[in-house]
C-alpha cells in the first residue's frame, strides 16, 4: 500500500466513528490478502490508524499494555497493508495484509485456530513457529 | 451446523472471555464459508452465543437497541452457521456462515464496502437488494 499524506489521513480519521468502544477504539479485522484467511482481531485508536496509513504497516492499540503496538515489532512478523476498508457504519476496519511469518503470538498462522466441534475445542490451525524461540529474551 | 445440547454449550460458554468489552460482549467476525469474504462485524453476549449454538443461526447483541438480535429476522437474510471458531485468547469469535440474501442492512452483500483509496472512499461492494423494499413497513 502506498503511504498517505497527513491531509488525506485527516479526512479518513474524520469519517471513522471511535465512539462505540470504551477508550475510543475501533475493532480491526486482519485478513490475508491472498487467501482471505482471517488472521486476527485487534483494536485501533486514532494514533494506530494514523501510523498504519503513514507507514503502510499494521499498527494496533494494545489494551492490556495501554500502548500503541506495531504488529511484528518483537517477532519480525509484520503485516504490510494492501487494502484498508471500513464498514457501513464506519465503526470497524478491515486490513487486508501481506503477513510475514505468522500472525498469532502462540505460533499459529492465524489466531482463529480453535473450532468448536461436537462440544469440544478442536485445534484446526497450522503451527508456523515456536513462540519460545521467537519471543525469547536476549 | 448441527445444534448443540445445553451441556455442550455450557462448556463452550465457560471457555469464552466476555470481560474485555463493556456490557460483557465478544466481537464476532462473520465470514462467507464458501468465498471467505468478510460479511460483517457484530457483538454477542452470552445469550446470543447460546441462541446461535442452539439454533444453528447467527444471533448477535444489538448495542443500539440493547437486545438480542437474530440476523435476518426482519429481512429474511439469515446466516446458517457452518463453523464456529474462537481465537487464541477466547475473547473473539468467528462465524463461518451460509448467507441468505445479503449481510448489510444498506443493501450490500458485505458491510465492508468502503475502501480508502488515494485519500477518498471508493465503494467496492456489490449492491444486492434495495433496503427500502426489504425493510419497508407493512
Structure description:
Helices cover 17% and strands 33% of the residues of chain A. Chain A has 138 residues and is α+β, with helices and mostly antiparallel strands. Chain A has a single domain, classed as Phosphoribosyl-AMP cyclohydrolase (Ubiquitin-like (UB roll), Roll), CATH 3.10.20.810. In chain A, strands 2-1-6-5 form a four-stranded mixed beta sheet. In chain A, strand 1 and strand 2 (38-44) form a beta hairpin. In chain A, helix 1 runs antiparallel to helix 2 (46-55). Chain A is globular, with a radius of gyration of 16 Å. Chain A starts with 5 loop residues before the first helix and ends with a helix. At the A-B interface, helix 1, strand 1, strand 2, strand 5 and strand 7 of A face helix 1, strand 1, strand 2, strand 5 and strand 7 of B. Strand 7 of chain A pairs antiparallel with strand 5 (79-86) of chain B.
